[in-house]
Amino acid sequence: xxxxxxxxxxAQRAVLAAWPAFEAAAAVTWCSVDxxxxxxxxxxxxxxxxxxxxxxxxxxxxxxxxxxxxxxxASPQRGSA
Length: 81
Known about the structure:
The protein is mostly helical. The protein has helices at 10-25, 33-41, 51-70. It is globular, with a radius of gyration of 16 Å.
């Protein structure tokens, strides 16, 4: 998990805490929290993200994580055609 900057707000820390689950569910290897913030929120880093935007990003990450877990393929069935 990325190290929490003590200057982060509670909303920003919540985004940072949700990152490992999102990263694992999405199998993210090319991204970081700050890159996601830059891409989706047009801010330089998580520390620059206002609390209301951080709350929206957190909700988006949590919904995505839940949905990605629901998309896991079932084990293949043998003998069916």
